[in-house]
Amino acid sequence: MRSNTVLIAILTFAATMLAAPAVAETRTAIFAGGCFWCVESDFDHVPGVTGTTSGYIGGTSENPTYQDYVAGGHREAVKIDYDPAKVSYATLLGVFWHSVDPTDAGGQFCDRAYAYTTAIYAIGKDDLVAAEKSKQDVQKALGTEIVTEILPAPRFWPAEDYHQDYYLKNPIRYAYYRNGCGRDRRLKELWGDKAGH
Fold it and tell me: How many Å separate Cα 52 from the centre of its chain?
């Protein structure tokens, strides 16, 4: 009798485990594309992206804040979590390239300085290779030098809470900033109908 009870319990547990939905794999991409509010906004609408986090990357200081990240040598960047079963890293690279001006070595749009320059921070060798190939493809497509750096990803530091989802929390201010900065106008000039936003 006891052995039957144990057997039923084991079979019930096994059936529950088989019926449980598989946990989706999540991968991460990190892109610096100027103002992190804009990069976050551009990627949040991509099917398969499960989360975006604005932050700082690439500098020498620990625990950077909005007040000191520039002095620490960091760029504004966005960490993008995604489901590789729904969107590929190659697709995310395509979204990135078409949402920035990769020919501008001095910043992005109205935001000038190193902190606003473009970069792809690759996580792992496969992403590094894919990013380098995509850069070559973009250089051929535009017929000009692409200045976007491609680097192995160092530590990413999340920005303060008030920067997260800024475009949702402050839609009027965000729209005014994005339009005033000329981001979408320049993207249209550079990419035409392929421009992202």
Answer: 7
Alpha-carbon span 65 to 67, nearest angstrom: 5
What torsion, rounded to 10 degrees, do the Cα atoms 43, 95, 115, 160 define? Answer: 10
- Residue 124 counted as domain residue: yes
Identify the pLDDT of residue 157: 98
Query: Range of 128's domain?
Result: 23-194
Whether residue 14 lies inside any domain: the answer is: no
Is-catalytic flag, 110?
Answer: no
Using CA atoms, how far apart are residues 88 and 91, in angstroms rounded to an integer? 5
Measured between alpha carbons, how far apart are the two ends of the chain, in Å? 66
Q: Tell me how far apart the alpha carbons of residues 191 and 151 are, in angstroms, rounded to a whole number.
A: 24
- pLDDT score at 7: 45
Single-letter residue type at 153: A
pLDDT value at position 196?
84
pLDDT at 20: 46
For position 74, which CATH number holds? 3.30.1060.10
| pLDDT score of 3 | 55
* 8 Å CB contact between 157 and 56: yes
CA distance 25 to 12: 26
Q: Give the tokens for residue 22.
A: 């598989």
Catalytic residue among 35, 38, 110, 181: 35
Residues of the chain with pLDDT under 50: 6-7, 9-20
